[in-house]
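INPUT
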Amino acid sequence: MNLSEMSKEEIAPLLEIEKQKFTAFKSKGLKLNMSRGIHSVEQLEISMPIMDIFHSSAEMKSEDGTDCRNYGNLTGIAEAKRLFGELLSVCEDEIIIGGNSSLALMYDSVSRAMTHGIMGSTPWRLLPEVKFLCPVPGYDRHFGICETFGIKMINIPMSETGPDMDMVEKLVSSDETIKGIWCVPLYSNPDGIVYSDETVKRFANLSPAASDFRIFWDNAYCVHHLTEKENKILNLLEEAKKAGKEDMVFEFASTSKITFPGAGVSVFAASKANISYVESILKYQIISYDKLNQLRHVRYFKNLDGLKEQMVKHREIIAPKFNLVVNTLSEQLDGICRFVKPEGGYFVSVFVPDGCASKVVSLCKEGGVTLTGAGATYPYGKDPHDSNIRIAPTFPPLAELSEALELFCIAVKIASYEKAL
Amino acid sequence: MNLSEMSKEEIAPLLEIEKQKFTAFKSKGLKLNMSRGIHSVEQLEISMPIMDIFHSSAEMKSEDGTDCRNYGNLTGIAEAKRLFGELLSVCEDEIIIGGNSSLALMYDSVSRAMTHGIMGSTPWRLLPEVKFLCPVPGYDRHFGICETFGIKMINIPMSETGPDMDMVEKLVSSDETIKGIWCVPLYSNPDGIVYSDETVKRFANLSPAASDFRIFWDNAYCVHHLTEKENKILNLLEEAKKAGKEDMVFEFASTSKITFPGAGVSVFAASKANISYVESILKYQIISYDKLNQLRHVRYFKNLDGLKEQMVKHREIIAPKFNLVVNTLSEQLDGICRFVKPEGGYFVSVFVPDGCASKVVSLCKEGGVTLTGAGATYPYGKDPHDSNIRIAPTFPPLAELSEALELFCIAVKIASYEKAL
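OUTPUT
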């Protein structure tokens, strides 16, 4: 039965039951973490052969003879550009291979725009105001970059097909202080939404008032399917080229959720003109990223099929966890919460009744389970409805996840019942 | 005989001889590179065991149980902080372990000051002018960072004991737009100068007009001795503490010239207050640097003695190259050039007669040997005397180095003789 249709007399005794369950649960003294999307130990084991790639110095040369132990190759080795270029369907001269962090590539892109502008534009630091559009709920670390640079964030509602494009088009074309938008187009963080072809095409055809407006296209989950159905999105850079607007695209990806979260390889893709411009400043920042790790990844995967096979191994480990989350929530919280079963990505996004998210998170904390902070999925940490909670089920083993979900459901019920009374 | 004491009639026939030698040399069709301080293949071989550190997942945990394959530990793992803290004689809470590039740590430090200021100061981007002092000759990549951020550079002459401290003290204390100074205090790049105790003490006791003035102390060659004599400098952070001025110090180092230039570990050391401040912004840029590479380095070296033993192996390979340079220049260019035999570091800094450096570099290029560009050791690439040339002898094998030096000497003689005529 839907909570909103229940009378206070019906709810009150249910609340008492959940409170008793909560007290019992607390006494277990658990310590579990569902706050961040990180690999479980089992997933880390998949990639262990990558530690055994180099046995001789001859093996440490890239295909063009570059000794990857030494300096050089600012934008990455050719075979890495080819492999990750194939992954993102971009050419080798449209890509830079970075270090272990795509977040750093994103932060650096914004930082560079602040200090240097983009391709000849006025450095953003000289402008009285800079704004970014932020589809919500979204990724807290994207919002963090804006916050630390004092970039004003504007919430954009998400639908099942992606951000509200009417609103995006209107704002971007009319306000030249809007310099960017954060997107996770395939399996959005946290909702798992797949941007429709129409959405991508509308992005590719935006007519921004600002010449240095960029779409920050964080393709973090480009091959991170949770079912056998491999959702695909249109290639934004290619679509933008058709409209002669390819300079508008900054695309990012990484192997953080493919090999090792802490020791992977990151990727930046953009038009040739953007790549040349970035390179012209990047050369002052670094001589070269870690090419040994680039080569290690290429040799390990061998090719795109190898990379995809790796993702099947991850899926076999994490899909049961997502199923457990979805099944538990369906059974326990039907009529109280709203959520969608994701077909990829790393999260389950749950909307609890308005005004309850903070309470749920704090009850879970009290019971020994750390969740992503309420509000984290919104700019400035402010969820206007105090409703969205991001569950990250990959790290805990199934048995622990089951316990954590038990607590989560109790917490949601307590918060929702109390709110309804 | 000194060139300045020779008559034109004496010089002319000598020039003809060198020109003939040059023509003969060119016909060899050589392609050698003495432009950058990079490891020779032999040196790279020293570190090969570092590729064979991890054989099981258990070995990939740091001492506090952190799985180094996963996210976490923004400022580095404890054992890396301890080892590199010992190397620089700083505490574990005065250090951040970075990625493979200390240049990136330096660039990021300046970039952060531009966008955020330092410890509450006005962001440099909001100031009408920012200046750095640049002891010359110096490291081109330091100057490049200033140039790309539009920071005005002021040349400071170097003496045998370090930068002209009278000038540094006077400028720093009187001009609040001066925000920094670049120093390579031990075996300076390119001169190989060792800062005297008095110089370090005077640095530690500077009274800058700007509260956010920082000494960028690039301790790149802290254990890079070329002889058995291990020169030491005073610990700047410790000296500054005595004066209550420890917040003035930003220290940098890396293993780029210890293990692999392209895949080492970098280090940032500073006061606790600075570290906390940097961390508060760094957390928006990156989740964690590559901890596997940090652990790899610690396990490989075992301790500071292990690291020093590694440096002896490097010395055995590169000292003969430096000796060859110094001996050749002494024999061939006595009375024409000025240079000092370095006791450490990566370069031999040669002062050819005024107005001759560009010509020497271009003749060498014509003959097949790439040198660091003339002027590169000065801000804006402008050597006011067109005199300094940085020789980087580590990369070529001895036989090739010998040939390159032959050409270099011919080129210096041609340029000098022509100038004198």
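end of record. The radius of gyration of chain B is 23 Å.
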